[in-house]
């Protein structure tokens, strides 16, 4: 994997949706995909953050992106079906999706997890990913070489004390990725997960407040793997790509 960097404009005329595109890893991925020629659909909760990424992409002279301000907590399956229709009408295609937005919830013993925290984290991290994927699959199926990427975590394959709802949501996300990869085993759609590993973002800082962020990789450091996963060079299907191998 990753022996060759993708060619500079390998995403030219491709349309890619990135969730959580206003901050952290999603922001870096949106910029990286735009730099390689993609028209990026920036989905996220905070409009100002999305506008800042939009401005940065335009200032760099990359293809003009689109903004979808959407709080995944309140979004319904109908919102995703409407979004899929709008993407089809405006762009006529969808080549890739990076499911990246997530929320951490409270880190606490499982017996203490509140109903609200459970439902919030499951809604944002899992239910929204499921409903959005269902709505977007018809468009991805039509792409010459569609790519569907899910974001998981080390606690999504090995349970860890106090990571309760977040960890459980990531186990389920990884399961969704595997089920879909098997369903599309004989189809041009490529389905994988990415585990970014410890990365210098707001989410990491809220999970590890005492940690020195300078010791962590930045979102930009991970972009070779995010680009590879979106590229025709990607040979994996149904796998979790580890962005920071040990
Ligand atoms: P950040 O908290 O920096 O960014 C998360 C993004 O998701 C933000 O853009 C945020 O938007 C968006 N988001 C959160 N809640 C919602 C919502 N309800 N509706 C819409 N958008 C929402 O996190 P990271 O960049 O660190 O994480 C990116 C992915 O990587 C996540 O899936 C995370 O689980 C995973 N990950 C991260 C690791 C790390 O060390 N950083 C390690 C392992 C996995 P807004 O800013 O507007 O709230």
From TrEMBL:
<dbReference type="InterPro" id="IPR020904">
    <property type="entry name" value="Sc_DH/Rdtase_CS"/>
</dbReference>
<protein>
    <submittedName>
        <fullName>YciK family oxidoreductase</fullName>
    </submittedName>
</protein>
<comment type="similarity">
    <text>Belongs to the short-chain dehydrogenases/reductases (SDR) family.</text>
</comment>
<keyword id="KW-0560">Oxidoreductase</keyword>
<dbReference type="Pfam" id="PF00106">
    <property type="entry name" value="adh_short"/>
</dbReference>
<dbReference type="InterPro" id="IPR002347">
    <property type="entry name" value="SDR_fam"/>
</dbReference>
<dbReference type="InterPro" id="IPR036291">
    <property type="entry name" value="NAD(P)-bd_dom_sf"/>
</dbReference>
């Amino acid at each position: 994997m990753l022996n060759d960097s993708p060619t500079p404009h390998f995403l030219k005329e491709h349309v890619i949706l990135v969730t959580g595109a206003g901050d952290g890893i999603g922001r870096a991925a949106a910029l990286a995909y735009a730099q390689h020629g993609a028209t990026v659909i920036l989905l996220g909760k905070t409009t100002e953050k999305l506008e800042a990424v939009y401005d940065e992409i335009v200032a760099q002279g990359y293809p003009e992106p689109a903004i979808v301000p959407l709080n995944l907590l309140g979004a319904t399956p109908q919102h995703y079906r409407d979004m899929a229709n709008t993407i089809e009408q405006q762009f006529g295609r969808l080549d890739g999706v990076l499911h990246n937005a997530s929320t951490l919830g409270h880190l606490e013993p499982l017996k203490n997890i509140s109903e609200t925290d459970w439902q919030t984290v499951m809604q944002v991290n899992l239910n929204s990913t499921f409903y959005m994927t269902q709505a977007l699959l018809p468009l991805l199926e039509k792409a010459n070489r569609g790519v569907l990427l899910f974001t998981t975590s080390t606690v999504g394959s090995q349970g860890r004390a106090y990571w309760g709802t977040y960890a459980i949501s990531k186990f389920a996300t990884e399961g969704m990725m595997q089920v879909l990869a098997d369903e599309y085993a004989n189809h041009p759609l490529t389905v994988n997960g990415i585990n970014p590993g410890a990365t210098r973002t707001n989410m990491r800082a809220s999970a590890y407040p005492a940690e020195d962020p300078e010791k962590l990789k930045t979102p930009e450091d991970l972009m070779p793997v995010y680009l590879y996963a979106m590229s025709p060079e990607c040979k994996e299907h149904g796998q979790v790509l580890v962005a920071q191998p040990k």
